[in-house]
């Protein structure tokens, strides 16, 4: 069974409730944008009138920011600055003329989100990652050539006869000197 797709508000990153004014938004950002764009009664404009994005309606909106337009419009902070919240609404593609889209199919919603994610991925270059650590090449030894108890001298002598890769011999000689490992079974003294 597939899990339902959860959309995040493109303005404040809360859970989106639908596609409003041309973007996936929560109810709060939808209402804020609708109230902010709604012409006041003295403007002589009707609510259903179509406007272009930079037309007379948006030019009459008077908002100011106390922080120079650098406020964080995320989650609970979204109500702290109307100017920055409105600018973020415009930046994500919300526009008053998009209010009459009507209901949208799930295909439209998913394809819109995928398109937005693809645009974001292409606009942000991938971070420089460190190259993976280069490990020394393992010494190729057939499993039947390893005795259970092996000394260091016997290991290097035996290895020289079973080598397939000529470069591996020089790498094997720079291995750190270690003590032999006794893997034989002995009776435990109690």
TrEMBL record:
Keyword Transmembrane helix on entry: no
Domain of life, per lineage: Eukaryota
Ranges where the Nuclear receptor domain occurs: 6-101
Gene Ontology molecular-function annotations: DNA-binding transcription factor activity; sequence-specific DNA binding; zinc ion binding
Xref: Pfam families: zf-C4
Sorted UniProt keywords: DNA-binding, Metal-binding, Nucleus, Receptor, Transcription, Transcription regulation, Zinc, Zinc-finger
InterPro entries to which the protein is assigned, alphabetical: Nuclear_hormone_rcpt_NR3 (IPR050200), Znf_hrmn_rcpt (IPR001628), Znf_NHR/GATA (IPR013088)
Keyword Metal-binding: yes
Entry protein name: Nuclear receptor domain-containing protein
Source organism per UniProt: Ascaris lumbricoides (Giant roundworm)
């Amino acid at each position: 069974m597939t899990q339902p797709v959860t959309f995040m508000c493109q303005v404040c990153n809360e859970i989106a409730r639908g596609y409003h004014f041309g973007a996936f938004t929560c109810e709060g950002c939808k209402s804020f944008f609708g109230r902010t764009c709604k012409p006041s009664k003295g403007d002589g404009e009707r609510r259903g009138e179509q406007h272009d994005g930079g037309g007379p309606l948006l030019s009459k909106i008077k908002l100011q920011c106390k922080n120079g337009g650098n406020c964080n419009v995320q989650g609970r902070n979204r109500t702290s600055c109307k100017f920055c919240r409105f600018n973020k609404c415009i930046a994500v593609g919300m526009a008053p003329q998009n209010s009459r889209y009507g209901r949208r199919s799930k295909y439209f919603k998913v394809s819109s989100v995928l398109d937005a994610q693809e645009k974001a991925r292409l606009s942000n270059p991938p971070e420089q990652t460190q190259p993976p650590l280069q490990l020394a090449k393992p010494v190729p030894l057939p499993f039947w050539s390893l005795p259970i108890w092996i000394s260091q001298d016997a290991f290097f002598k035996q290895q020289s006869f079973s080598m397939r890769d000529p470069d591996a011999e020089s790498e094997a000689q720079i291995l750190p000197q270690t003590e032999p490992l006794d893997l034989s079974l002995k009776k435990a003294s109690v």
